[in-house]
Amino acid sequence: MLSTPVQAEPMSGAEFDAYTKGKTLYFGRGGAPYGAEVYLDNRRLRWSFLDGECKDGYWYEEAPSSICFVYEDRPEPQCWSFEKGDTGLIARFKNNPQSLDLYEAEDVDEEMICLGPKVGV
Length: 121
Prior knowledge:
By secondary structure, the chain is mainly beta. It has one helix and eight strands; from the N terminus they run H-E-E-E-E-E-E-E-E.
């Protein structure tokens, strides 16, 4: 007999903060690596698409169960709902519901590598 997975309730800002603060989380999408994010104090963060380039930003809770991110190179908020699944976080992009979900690939207890700014030769 097949069972239908029970959909978890979206996390509040306080739950998201408690889960992520001080961690580096790696995310996947569609079975492939997608990016990593370091969660710092005061809802600050650093994101990378795993290409060595990092973007600083912050997050805030908007309405119940909507976590929005603003990055230094993208001032328009990107809002997600987060649920805690059996193997970690599941993120659903609220700005485009047709987008594939992101899922937590792993929690790595090491520093994410961010290369310096690109300079010409």
